[in-house]
Amino acid sequence: MADSGESTHPDSPRLPTMASFEEFSRQATLMNSCTRLWKELCDHYASLEQDLIAKSESLRSKIQSLDDHTERSLKLLEKREGTIEGSVQIAVSSAEKSTKAAIKVFEGGEEEAVEEVDDDEGLLLKLKSFCVRMDHEGFWRFVTVRKKELDVLRAKIPIALENCIDPPRFVLESISEVFPVDKRGKSERVNDLGWACVLILESLIPVVVDPVIGKERLLVTPRVREHANEIAETWKNSLEERGGIENVKTPDVHTFLQHLVTFGIVRKDDVSLYRKLVVGSAWRKQMPKLAVSLGLGDEMSDMIEELISRGQQVDAVHFTHEVGLVDKFPTVPLLKAFLKDAKKAAAAITEDPNNTGRSAYLATRKEQSALKAVIKCIEEYKLEAQFPAENLKKRLEQLEKTKTDKKRPAAAPANKRTRASNNGPMPPAKAGRLTNAYVSSFPAPPPFVRSPSHMQYPAGVAPYAYDRPAVPAIYGSRSPSYVYSPEAVPSPLPAGSYPGAPINYPVYGALYGAPSYGQAYY
């Protein structure tokens, strides 16, 4: 009890010890807090220092890149300035040469044109004759009727255009019939000539490229360039009349974009328009290259993602290979996704209750198109090691065989249609499809001669209603157009009451000089 009293006494020596310990604990906590705050501050300042260093390096790199770009631009400007005189001399000498050749043609010094085009060389001479005489209408007509010779035209037109006095103006005048606005009649607009416009515009590029410094400068006069700008503005203004970007035909879009690239009149303000047009016509083979030439390289990643979201993985593959984004968008997964989507679409077509008649055919065709596109990509980009095409080819052959078997007609019974006599001809196979068409084995008379009159029917048999309008002879020249009404035919006669022999028609050969046939019973 004494110990307890001593521990609680106010003068006990343990009270200062407890107070000192609590003070020490408070000081230790404060030191820990200060240490933690100091560490956080050090980390923060270290992070700021690292950010400043990284930004400084980035800024230094950009400055260096800008200096290099400026140096290259200055050198290019010096080169362009130094080569202007030489390029102008070359262009002038070429124009003078073409002018002299044209003068000789008009003065009768040389043959104006080649009469016949039998081979590639003759085709080239014919094209040159149009270009020398600056006959843009004849040139246009000559090219547009030779779509089957597209490869030859692509090789020969650039050579021929070099003989023009002013190739850019000649090209603009040649395609003016359909671009920027189609001036043909409604009946002629059925024939799309966008392919010819693109071909001629592409062929102009090697002709107008500067022979000294290359594609960096196009030899197009300011007047022609201004006219090309006016044409582009006219086409853009006509978009509303065509129903907007979504309703413009792909050949028209391709012609417009190629027109911009050929004459070097791409505008940065219209980049959004170019992107919409390219994405809407991405299935065209030349679109990836055109997109790069139009200055869409920075937006290519977003465009590829948009194509993938639309289910156009094959088109996205072409774009990725054109701009070098294969690592970001691997090719094989895109092709597999495209095949998977195609199979789903084919299955949906098969299950469509509104398309039961052609569902199998449409589904097969859908899968065939997808397989062909993927196989072509694999072969074009050498992906056999990553994505073997053997199974795809086997599946394609299987679909082709199935399609062929469905088209093959079923074998008819042997005795379905037989001749009534040795000399009697076979009746038309499709005659039974039309109940009101009279079937005859005799050849039809000429259209300007009436069919011979039939003999009178025996008593008790009502004649057919020949006074009704005749239907067209849908069975060729072997079926006269006799028409009768099923209601006009009386009920069958009792057995054994048939009054006489079958009806005998006049022999056509005796009347019209046609070969005669023996009487046939069907």
Please specify the SSE layout and strand pairing.
Blueprint: H1 2-7, H2 14-106, H3 120-132, H4 136-144, H5 150-161, H6 167-174, H7 194-208, E1 209-210, E2 214-218, H8 222-237, H9 250-263, H10 271-280, H11 287-293, H12 300-309, H13 313-323, H14 331-350, H15 359-380, H16 390-407, H17 508-512
Antiparallel strand pairs: 1-2
Q: Give me the strand/helix succession.
A: HHHHHHHEEHHHHHHHHHH
SSE-based structural type = mainly alpha
Mean pLDDT: 77
Tally of individual helices: 17
Strand content: under 5%
Largest sheet: 2 strands, antiparallel
Radius of gyration: 43 Å
Structural summary, described in words:
The chain is mainly α and 522 residues long. The protein is built from 17 helices and two strands. The protein has helices at residues 2-7, 14-106, 120-132, 136-144, 150-161, 167-174, 194-208, 222-237, 250-263, 271-280, 287-293, 300-309, 313-323, 331-350, 359-380, 390-407, 508-512; strands spanning 209-210, 214-218. Strands 1-2 form a two-stranded antiparallel sheet. α5 packs across α7 (194-208) and α13 (313-323) packs antiparallel against α14. The chain is flat and about 130 Å long. Residues 1-8, 412-443 and 445-522 have low confidence and may be disordered.
Key words describing this protein structure:
single chain; 522 residues; mainly alpha; two-stranded antiparallel sheet; flat; disordered N terminus; disordered C terminus
What's the short story on this structure?
Helices cover 55% and strands 1% of the residues. It is mainly alpha-helical.
